[in-house]
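[recover] target loaded
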């Protein structure tokens, strides 16, 4: 087979074809996308945002998101899992380009093959990253972390786990501590808990921290909790993370339209003389799918382009969470509508639509979830400080 690469792309056509073949197998067997991961690593996909001086491809957020969409069109879970690594590299790259070299070590490590993952989701914390139920305790030479982290995508392969905890040694001045724990650290356990509805191949297992030590050289930030602590590290984290999520699900929406249109061209009924594409209600539903896609496409691209070209204003966080929310909500509508017009076949496990429907549902769980999105957008629009206490009365 001839290997074909698109301009400025780490993804070849034959590579993507292999990913497409493996995707339903990973889902069915509930196992990590190990073969995809090795292919992507060799192709340089994991080094997309890393500056060339550190051995990367030097891609902007906008360029990386085009690659993310392309990958997600063939293997959504693979794209979602690798997004966790890509966004950490993107954050470090963004800081470096702005003259902040505090995370250059991450770029050097990524250029040499390190794999970064995220350990932020916690039970009882609806403000991920900004608050924490995990404990960060200052000790000689670093911090010890204790807590239970969920949704740790890339659990089988990460070499550095990005995590955070709360230092309450001074109750009047609590701090959020952001760190990157090496895999050879002591004091943590990965629990194989990942048996879920969709995005199964990400293997987002739990990580239990029991006094895990992280040295000072891997402490990225010690900042105030809540919005008061938001700096370029935090806003970069949310920008790269949420824009990546949105592009993965946008790609799912595009793929769903491809699949359902092809199905409908040959779907017939005994009551009709022509295929179902001539049924007016089918045309109506397909039109709704296309109109949703027409809205979300320019939205996700505008956010990525504005960030890449420096068009970031005081309303950035509002724009960011609104974009992610509107995209994942619309994609799930598309998935649901496609199953309706697919008919009974869409219920079968062998149907690609069945898997895409389950994968699409996962989008609502990623931060910011619908509850938090509406809180953030509503408060910022009304001029209310999101840190104002009590939050709800």
């Amino acid at each position: 087979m001839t290997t074909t690469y698109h301009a400025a792309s780490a993804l070849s056509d034959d590579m993507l074809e292999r990913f497409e073949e493996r995707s339903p197998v990973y889902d069915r067997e509930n196992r990590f996308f190990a073969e995809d991961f090795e292919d992507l690593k060799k192709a340089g996909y994991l080094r997309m945002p890393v500056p060339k001086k550190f051995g990367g491809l030097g891609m902007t957020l906008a360029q990386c998101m085009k690659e993310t969409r392309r990958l997600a069109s063939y293997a959504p879970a693979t794209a979602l899992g690798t997004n966790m690594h890509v966004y950490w590299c993107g954050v470090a790259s963004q800081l470096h380009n702005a003259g902040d070299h505090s995370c250059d070590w991450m770029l050097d490590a990524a250029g040499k093959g390190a794999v970064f993952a995220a350990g932020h989701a916690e039970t009882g914390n609806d403000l991920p990253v900004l608050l924490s139920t995990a404990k960060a305790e200052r000790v000689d030479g670093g911090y010890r972390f204790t807590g239970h982290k969920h949704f740790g995508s890339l659990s089988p392969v990460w070499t550095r786990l990005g995590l955070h905890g709360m230092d309450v040694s001074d109750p009047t001045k609590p701090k959020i501590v952001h760190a990157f724990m090496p895999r050879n650290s002591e004091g943590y356990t990965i629990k194989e808990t990942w048996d879920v509805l969709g995005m199964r191949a990400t293997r987002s297992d739990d990580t239990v921290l029991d006094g895990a030590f992280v040295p000072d050289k891997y402490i990225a930030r010690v900042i105030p909790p809540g919005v008061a602590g938001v700096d370029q590290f935090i806003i970069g984290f949310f920008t790269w993370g949420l824009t990546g999520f949105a592009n993965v699900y946008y790609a799912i929406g595009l793929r769903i339209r491809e699949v359902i249109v092809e199905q409908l061209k040959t779907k017939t009924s005994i009551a009709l003389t022509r295929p179902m594409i001539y049924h007016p209600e089918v045309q109506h539903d397909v039109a709704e799918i296309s109109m949703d896609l027409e809205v979300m496409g320019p939205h996700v691209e505008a956010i990525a382009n504005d960030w890449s070209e420096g068009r970031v204003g005081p309303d950035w966080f509002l724009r960011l969470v609104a974009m992610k929310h509107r995209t994942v909500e619309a994609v799930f509508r598309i998935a649901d509508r496609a199953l309706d017009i697919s008919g009974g076949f869409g219920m079968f496990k062998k149907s690609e639509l069945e898997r895409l429907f389950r994968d699409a549902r996962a989008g609502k769980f990623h931060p910011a979830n619908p509850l938090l999105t509406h809180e953030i957008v509503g408060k910022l629009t009304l001029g209310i400080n999101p840190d104002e206490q009590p939050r709800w009365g």
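[recover] notes: The radius of gyration is 21 Å.
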